Amino acid sequence: MADYHSFIEKINTAQKGIASFRRVVLHCHSPNSYDYRRTSACNPELLIKEEKEYQEKLKNSDLNMIAITDHMKFDFACRLAAVCYESPCVLPGVEINLRPNPPWNTFKIHVVAIFPEKYSHEEICKILPSGMPSESQRSGIEEIENVNISEFVNKVHSYGGICIAAHVDSNNGIRRTFRQLGQDGVMLYAPDQELSSEQMKEISDEFKDWILSARFDAIEVAKHSDKVHYTWISKIKGQKLVFPAILRNDSHHQSDINKPEQITHIKMTAVGYKDLVQALKFPETRIRFPNEVPATPSPRILGMEIISADKKGFFKGITLAFSDNLSCLIGPRGSGKSTIIEALRYTLGLNQKLEEFEQAGAELASKAHSLQKATLTNCIIHVAYLRKDGRTQILESTYDSKQENMTKFYDVEGTPIEIVDIDSNFPVRLFGWSEIETLGREANRQRELLDRLIPELAEMLLSQKSFRQMLETKKIDIVYSVSKLVSFVQKDSSEIKKYREYKSDFEKLNTAEVDALFKDIDTAKNKAVVLKKVKNNIQSLLSNTPQSQAIELFDGINELLSEYPVPIKDWWVSHKEQNKLKERETEIREAMEKVRSTIIKFSDEMTIHINVINGELTEKESQLKEKIGEEASKQVAADLRRIAGERLQRVNQMRREYNEEWKRLEDRIKQWKDISLQLTDLQQRISEKRTKRKEEIETDLNKFNNPKMKISIRFKESADRKAFTAHLYTCGLLTKDVNARWRSNVWPEKISVSCTPVEFAQCMLSKTHLKLKESVTLDGKVFETEGTMAETLTNTIYPFGEDKDAEIPIVDKDLLEKILSSAEIEWNDEEGILLNEKPIENCSPGQRSSAMLPLIALVEDTPLIIDQPEDNLDNSLVGKVLVDILAGLKEKRQIIVATHNPNIVVSGDAEQVIVMDAISDSEGICKEMGSIDNQSIVKSVVDIMEGGKDAFINRFKRYGREVELEVP
Known about the structure:
Blueprint: H1 5-14, E1 20-28, H2 44-60, E2 65-71, H3 75-81, E3 89-100, E4 109-114, H4 121-125, E5 144-147, H5 149-158, E6 162-165, H6 174-189, H7 197-213, E7 218-221, H8 224-227, E8 231-234, E9 239-242, E10 245-247, E11 264-268, H9 273-280, H10 283-286, E12 287-288, E13 300-308, E14 317-321, E15 326-330, H11 337-347, H12 351-354, H13 362-376, E16 379-386, E17 392-398, E18 408-411, H14 422-425, E19 429-430, H15 437-441, H16 443-452, H17 457-494, H18 499-509, H19 512-543, H20 557-561, H21 566-578, H22 581-628, H23 632-702, E20 711-720, H24 722-730, H25 747-754, H26 757-766, E21 775-778, E22 781-784, H27 789-797, E23 800-803, E24 808-811, H28 813-823, E25 828-835, E26 838-839, H29 845-851, E27 864-867, H30 875-889, E28 895-898, H31 902-906, E29 912-920, E30 923-930, H32 935-944, H33 948-958
Parallel strand pairs: 1-2, 2-3, 3-5, 6-7, 7-10, 15-28, 15-29, 19-27, 27-28
Antiparallel strand pairs: 1-11, 3-4, 4-6, 8-9, 11-12, 13-14, 13-16, 16-17, 17-18, 20-25, 21-22, 23-24, 25-26, 29-30
Helix pairs in contact: 6-7, 11-13, 17-23, 17-28, 18-23, 19-22, 24-25, 26-28
């Protein structure tokens, strides 16, 4: 019984060129570091023993690469790197103590320099200044003084190494140093002020741009949460950048070397210095921390081979290995890419799926059968498949044009396996002909996926979500205002409601004679009230006047410039300098500080004026007391009038505070209305975008199918209001107070089909009648709309009124909150896929699969095979959407793509590129396989694929790196 070990061995050999994540530590100390953790003093015998133990520990670790970086020493690192371990790969390095030139010279900074395998001690010595003691004389705490950091990094580069900013947030880290210098600079001008969050962010962003300009190769952080800080909008590059961040290890004892939580996972084709340098240039796809390392996709196809029995097949003999993540088949037309796809389809039993397209997709099925017959006749196909349970099994099929499936199943030892259903045991989704049940059934998911084909919608949908959150936040502010109003009304046993009574009492007591007695006192009191109001306004103005540190006139300019071509950026730099705009910002800050000082001075002056008036009031009250004298009747009248006046003044103060809060409530409701109108406008613009792109997307969807299979998009603007209908049944706004038969008369449906949630809320708040539709049809039954329904709704649900006793406006808190909550209910366009004018959810699984072909990449975790997706999508979608989808999905599922588009290969960071070629019209070969780290693969992509060189250049630019392309 023949086994398949040789087949698996050929696959394993072919997989050696595939890029994969490796376990890497780039900052590690050996016994030669002065701070190596020991239990006793070091001596030569102990050092020899510790070095041997250290080497043994490395051999037994599961690391793939380690850089030994002792403090100011590298002899042991060079000796150990020269041993040439197979695993781990040891790189010689050194941790340098730098004392930068002023104003940094008060700080000691650590950087790590790492060099290629087997670099000699003498070569690394070149980065040290002359006069540095020999290594045997160095303790490890020596410093290189008066260093220009950027020049030092360049020096390391010039001698063939890379430079990493070590433990940046520690006491000897560059970020902490930079941040302290930034804080000191700000505090120099405002020593009594704390730094604002804006200032801290500015210092942080300046640090990241400085790190970039200093040309560090990576930065060392302590934990995963620090990594996110190094994705930012660079002022230098004018674009969003991801800077390579590696995880700090910095072990000072052999026992700490292999701690899983301190290991960085770096994707490399081969484990070596050259591949490390290459990986650091593309951190977004190449660097992962322990908690983000993707699980190896399973199940997956390990590889395949095609053997031509009589040497008449298109491939006389070919073996291919596939990556766990993204594999790309490239080559000129006619080189056999589609033959590989068809061989997989036949062996995996997917020809049977073609039968589901007998009527609608006969042309597609015929094309597949014709290609199989022309290229696979008399061929044996082997496919090695790693199942979800971890078992590797072999599918073997001899092609027979008259038989849809001839596949047999074996384990690696060659033992036959009984398989009833290929799809459940060896699931594969081959682009366009597999079942896409979950997408086809749910209209809302169809809408979400269709939206992903409109890149400009992503930001709008985020804004839509933001507006809904803003509505909810503003509602909270409104409810808070209403609660304050309620507290005003309830204060002191609802004394505010006695306003009309107190006013009447005062007017009765305030006869002409009494009024004359109190004229001067009333005048003084009124003056005091006015002055106190002015002082309160001054204090409010002061609290709303920004401090000078908060002035940021150029905030957002760099983000804006990143959207424009380079000439605009150059113009802005020149314009800013010529017009001294930075100086103007300083002038404004100084002026603002002067304004604040003026306001404070004014407030103090107002306090003096109030004190003067209070003195006058005291004098007038004394004069009145003398004037009344001993006349009891006048004293009683005066006392009663005074008490009544104080009551009225107290309630008037309550009403003033109430009305001020009411004004704030009105302002907040206005703001809420403005936000709701913006939400409505945004939904309208989203609908317009969908409408505008509808025909274009329909065209792209139909490129895959023949004319008998018309795919279209069902679209009704703003018609998805099911959630609003459900809300109206449960929110409590429609009760028997509105109409006793509102349920049986289907008022929620009548309202929801007539208006959006925002329109409903706007009408209820403004007491405007809804424009209700005349009737609603449900399950074939027509419900007419009552003539008085709109008027009944607005009169009953309108939340505002008036308290006649207090002579103040009032609001029903419960009603208002329910109305505002109604506007937060989502509504949307009704959108979904139609196949021949029939909703796809009502079609067969095969039809759903065909109609949803361009969106298949977004579902399931089984291996996904895509044959030339660019044929079905316009180039902008390939570049902006499909590539991103593939890059995101490849870490969750295996993807195999046959393509002519270099962006899929390059921007998708393909782990395996299989280069196909045709020797003649009847014979194809595999020229080579490997990741895009391989310069030979790069050359093939550039030579074969139109736009290949541009794709590589754009890849480098995306990470703000200098373009390094060695091919013409």
